[in-house]
Amino acid sequence: TLDLTCRRMPCFAKFAEMEEMVNMEAEINEVQPLLLSVTIGSTLQFYFIGEKCEILQDMNRHLEAILKEKRGLRKRLLKHRCQESLPIEATYHKSMVELLNEAVTFIEKLESHLQSVRSIPQVPHMMSNMDTTLSKTEVLMIELRELTEQILKWEELQKEVYSN
């Protein structure tokens, strides 16, 4: 009731108007950054659209130039490349065929050759691993022989027990 009576009094009317103005200013201050960010965003968007438009125009000019030279390009594409190379004498044809075969074989095996070259620094480590593996294998072979002998002895003992 106190609030209601205070509001009706003329002395508090100015206070209510001031409170309303402060609320409106707060709302404006909240909306202003959003409007600013939207404005900046749209400006940047137009800037990037302009850049993309320039790039597309450059591509368009390039394609137009290619289309103008279309006839010349077709001739160049249809023309055999061997006509531009140096002629080879007939006596060397067999050697060239052999050389091409060797080149193709080399290219096919190039990856395995490269892998071999890459593994050269690892050879000492691989050799030490092989030595340790060989040692372990020898130990296992000795243990296997001992077990075999023990099994044979046990088998003989079992035969003697069953025969008695």
Q: What can you tell me about this protein's structure?
A:
By secondary structure, this protein is mainly α. The protein folds into two domains: 11-85; 92-163. It has five helices and no strands. It has helices spanning 2-8, 13-68, 70-78, 93-119, 123-163. The radius of gyration is 47 Å and the shape is flat. The mean pLDDT is 82.
Uncertain stretches of 5 or more adjacent residues: none
- Tally of helical segments: 5
Q: Spell the H/E element sequence.
A: HHHHH
State the end-to-end CA separation: 122 Å
Mean pLDDT: 82
Helix content: over 70%
Count the strands?
0
Rounded to an integer in angstroms, the radius of gyration calculated over CA atoms is 47 Å
Count of folded domains: 2
Main β-sheet: number of strands, strand sense, barrel status?
none
Structural class: mainly alpha
Strand content: under 5%
Coarse shape: flat
Topology of helices and strands:
Blueprint: H1 2-8, H2 13-68, H3 70-78, H4 93-119, H5 123-163
Which descriptors would you attach to this protein?
single chain; 164 residues; mainly alpha; 2 domains; 5 helices
Structure described in brief:
By secondary structure, the protein is mainly α.
